[in-house]
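#help-structures
NK: newbie question, is this the right format to request a structure? protein is Xylan alpha-1,2-glucuronidase
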Amino acid sequence: AEDGYDLWLRYQELPAEWRSANAKSLRSLVAPQNPSPTLAAARDELSRGLRGLLGEEVRLNEKAGRGALLIGTPASSPLIAGLDLPLGDLGNEGYVIRSVEIGGRAATAIAANSDIGVLYGTFHFLRLLQTRQPLVDLAIESRPSVQLRLLNHWDNLDGSVERGYAGQSLWDWWKLPDYRDPRYTDYARANASLGINGTVLNNVNTNANSLTPGYIAKTAALAEVFRPYGIRVYLSARFSAPVEIGSLETADPRDPAVRDWWKAKVDEIYKAIPDFGGFLVKANSEGQPGPQDYGRSHAEGANMLAEALRPHGGAVMWRAFVYSDVNPEDRAKQAYSEFQPLDGQFADNVLLQVKNGPIDFQPREPFHPLFGAMPSTPLMMEFQITKEYLGFATHLVYVGPLYEEVLDADTCQPSLLVGAAAGRDRPQIEANGRSYNNEESSCGNGATVARVIDGSLHNYSRTGVAGVANIGRDRNWSGSIFNQANWYVFGRLAWNPDLGAQEIAEEWLKMTFTADKQFVDAAAEMMMRSREAAVDYMTPLGLAHLMGTDHHYGPAPWVSELPQPEWNPVYYHRADKNGIGFDRTAEGSDAVAQYAPPVAGRFGSRAKIPEEYLLWFHHLPWDYTTSSGRILWEELVHRYDRGVGEVEAMQATWAELKPFVDPERFAETDSFLRIQQREARWWRDASIAYFREVSGCKLPAGVRPPE
Ligand code: GCU
């Protein structure tokens, strides 16, 4: 059944013309003898994929005949060792896919320095087939730009998933460690196909029980399933665990007994899981315990865990998402205020994991001001794959453009003089013992968020990207077929942040549905416009956080009575009869000052700010003239309505694509788009009705009053 279980690894039979044109490259498969589990996984994936794609079994051979497909490393395959392949720069995870000659016979090699590189190359090779590329003159080299490419599961030990919309947790804790659901292997295959190399199994709002012996054994069982696929397991750690599951009275990071407790705990974990990845920690945020409970800094807390993990090669991912109960400042400023001054104080196996924007995974936020501002602390990106603020399971919102927008953002921060910038003649200053260029404007030099994340801007020795997973026990894994694209685009961009959201969408469509151009063009366009549509019908012009409090589903801009100011959407839009928007300029909260001066200048200026961030940074009168010539009120109404129109256009596109899609997946998307259309109208009508009442403005001519 086309229930979405196979994700993008469907391996449907390719058209006859493609098969006959490329058959000569796929006569036999030559894999290493006595393969490691990883090489066996690569061989089996190829057999499975080729069987499906070619509609026939491909012979497994020991010798390389004409048209052989060879896989292996120089160590595992004398044939690969005998080829002069450019493996030097590929590191531990990279690979080559090459058209080669062996004894005068044309063949194809998938080779790497390590077994996992071979597996990654195998998935790439299968992708070439799935997207119908010709298999001639292949000279592909690829290696990841980022070291840690991780999913973060917000899965609770009771099986529920925080902000999960795809059913219960995949981890069946009750049956683990003895029963290993075959689905765990399919999960690992899907991740390996993207190059995802780690997974944090449990929620950041965690229970200390995840560190008890029983759960360590369960985690070890999952680690064993994932290991051949290059996926390490990590756990979220609760800072107060020494008190809750140890017998200590404090979790103070300066207390030697606490430090010893963590060392012993970490030793215990590594005994069971020798390649355990490390800890993810949410501390002193939204009620979670942390070092500040004892008057210690985030750095002291992180470094204590780092000390325990270091001898084993593990890392700490300390989250910068801090959100206090009492926050006298603008909420958007808290993370920068708390963490930027700690730059240089973290141990070398700590990474600071920063959400893409300063508040919380909104449909649109400016990039987080910490990016570029901590040259001595490796910053990891945290994206949200699950659609907490984007319509949960049903709304079709492809987040590729959101990720791309953030990665491409120019931080305009001065960069270390490495790489491309190094040759240029620039004045320099010394800071933190390093040289920076000191140009008035450091914009346009490629100091993008992507260059922060891949470590090249500041020469980070550790790099990482995390995505809050959208995976659960639903047959289709992600709550909808189109949500699978968000898992996919996350993984592809984690491997290479310079890929485009559009090309990834096309690739995913070809693998998931069909490579027919007519289908791919129309469906990709629909996907590429979907995120802007959601911005328009939910929170246009830089508005944010107007969703219903707690559940975050549907509009509630009127909520104002909750005890903590930031729980109320009115805190974020600040609308009254005179105007709307959050003043974050120097006259307001001055959050703009957390950005590099050129960015602060741009965001702080009404004239220069890109309009999509307008009300994030400015409080403006309703009759303020926008770039369209419409006054602000009318522009707001226009955008809400445009969002609804875009969803209706998506419905029309999908209806036209019916001939290309099987009935099951067609119907799911069709009915989900109906839900989205109804809810886009709900968003528009409720928001306009509310802002009209607050502002006293009249509906512009030609706009129908809300039903
Ligand atoms: C958001 C989300 C919470 C989550 C938190 C976090 O606020 O709504 O459910 O725990 O982010 O990232 O820690």
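mod (FA): yep, format's fine, and the tokens are attached above. The longest strand covers residues 95-102.
NK: thank you!
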